[in-house]
Amino acid sequence: MTIDIKQKKEKSTKTAKQKILSILKTIMLYGLMFVLIYTVVNWWRQPVMPANPQLQLTDYQGQAVDLAALSHEQPTLVYFWGTWCSVCSFTSPTINQLAADGYPVITIAIQSGPNQELQNYLTEKNFGFTTINDQEGEIFDDWQGQVTPSYVVLENGEMTQGLTGIQPLWSLKLRLWLASVF
Fold first, then answer.
1. Distance from CA of residue 170 to its chain's centroid?
2. Residues in CB range of 90: below 8 A, 6 or more apart
3. Is residue 115 part of a domain?
4. In this predicted model, what pLDDT tens digit does every residue of 124-161 receive, in sequence order?
5. Is residue 25 part of a domain?
6. How many domains does the chain have?
7. Residue 119: which CATH number?
């Protein structure tokens, strides 16, 4: 009789372990599928560098910004966003922190109103990053932008990476570092 109880305990222990392993396998499979789908969608929606991009721009305050020259010094992040974009309200503070940490960041505000309205928004949010006002969305259209926020990493005047959506600070720092190494 004691042997039967012992065998039942061993059998139930194996079953519990098998259930846990099955759950872990399922979680890993779904996680892998998510990463794969996210990567494909991100690749499809990323901006595309125009054949003859306009890299000499003027920020909303009238200051010249030469993206080609900046990206020759070190990889530069170009961040396409809008004051009207709800997702950008989550990503812009990250971009502001990246710029405050000394990384070269140029932002392009898409269809975000006249310069004074954009300045009021930036002041209200305490954003200190350099911003180009793309009032008509022509720059974003030129880059075949599809969604905001979108990001481009430029190195030596050429696009090395493009991505979209919410990006954590560590991911952006890693991408800029990788662009400088490879």
1. 10
2. 166
3. yes
4. 999 999 999 999 999 999 999 999 999 999 999 999 99
5. no
6. 1
7. 3.40.30.10
**143 DSSP 8-state letter:** T
If one counts every other C-beta atom within 10 angstroms of the C-beta of residue 46, the result is 21
For 18-66, what is each residue's pLDDT tens digit?
889 999 999 999 999 988 887 788 788 889 989 999 999 999 999 999 9
Domain containing residue 101: 56-181
Distance CA 148, CA 108 (A): 11
Q: Tokens for 27, please give them.
A: 């979680």
What's the chain's Rg over C-alpha atoms?
A: 23
> Which residue type is seen at 22?
S
Q: Is residue 23 in some structural domain? A: no
- Tell me whether residue 45 is in a domain: no
Task: Find the DSSP H helices in the chain.
Answer: 2-45, 67-73, 88-100, 115-125, 138-142, 169-181
User: Contact 140/110 with Cβ under 8 angstroms?
Assistant: yes
Maximum pairwise Cα distance, the chain? 89
Q: Which two tokens stand for residue 82?
A: 């809008």
Sort strands 130-134 and 64-66 into parallel, antiparallel or unpaired. unpaired
Amino acid 137 reads G
